[in-house]
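Q: How do we represent a protein-ligand complex in a form that can be generated token by token?
A: Start from the inputs.
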Amino acid sequence: MSTHRTPQRLPKMLAVIVVVLAVVAAGCQPTVRVRGLGAQPGGGLVEAPAPASLLPAAKPSAQRGRQVFEKACFPCHGNEGLGDGPAAQTLTAPHKNPMTDFFGMFGMKLAGEKLPSRPANFHNQVAMRLNAPFTMVETISLGRPHTAMPSFGPKIAYGANRGIPALTTQEIWDVMFYEWSFATTPQIVALGRRLYNERTLDIGNGRSATCADCHGTAGDGRGGQLSSEMAARVWGWKQQASPGIFTNVNLMAQRKPSELFQSILNGHGPMPGYRGKLTEDEIWALVDYLWTFVYEWRPARGQRP
Ligand code: HEC
Ligand code: HEC
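Then emit the structure tokens for the protein with heme C bound:
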């Protein structure tokens, strides 16, 4: 009999243990809303538009963003985005967690050792190539729990500090893309622009084309000699919201530079891969140039045009 009952009980007990662990784990984790902003934790594509209130009303502008940056972000990130602002060396992470909060209700302070918190350096290409614009918007908006990066949006992540001043959605997008512009240079963007419009490469079936021949000089999938063919094959009526329509901010903001790099290297749908036809540096220059279809790019402070 007992051998008969054990296999039935075991799953139940396991289920109870899993539920208890899940509740404990949920209680200990600071929740950061990733999905609400349209980005997926795995970096996957969400074609559904993010709520209008989370998207910029006007095309983001690095120039406007610079003004915000030099008011609100420079103390930590430094005027040139190197993470070396006047406050950078003294920053510590806030000690907020459910335990400290709970004891705090009774006036007891659990003060741990203060941990240094170093501001991001936006010239760090390794880090920036793995960042999607939406993830950065989310960090700026909610703040980053348990680091000195404060929240500048209407909502604040649990465990984060409040930044001053509060910023509008448009200002957050402007300043995010200004930070983005530190990760490239005017020379790289110029190289990308040249390659995109002028480099004619083999696309198979005895044909050759530039990027602009399919994607359009304005990056909107229109006007190139092969654009209508692409529209007929893949873009169709969805033309403003398909991969390859670089002016669509909702779609592009979900992309990491590393993902765009992979698409160019290996190909994507009817687009051929460019492995062996373009160098890695040339592909990165193209990626940097593609972002300029989404925001009004300007050389960042400290960069020579
Ligand atoms: C009080 C200091 C402070 C201020 C002010 C501040 N930051 Fe930060 N920021 C940080 C720190 C510290 C980090 C690194 C967090 C970590 O360790 O993950 C950071 C990280 C970030 C990141 C994440 C970068 C990445 O690669 O993951 C973004 C984006 C960012 N800050 C944007 C801004 C913007 C925009 C402003 C101004 C509106 C701003 N920050 C103001 C301290 C600050
Ligand atoms: C023959 C036409 C054609 C040419 C030439 C072409 N592309 Fe594409 N490209 C497309 C199409 C169509 C898509 C969308 C494919 C899909 O939806 O699967 C695309 C997708 C992409 C993507 C992926 C976008 C995303 O959101 O994931 C990138 C990046 C890209 N192209 C960059 C380039 C660059 C850079 C060049 C020039 C070196 C180029 N393309 C040349 C047709 C082309």
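The two ends are 83 Å apart (CA to CA). The mean pLDDT is 86.
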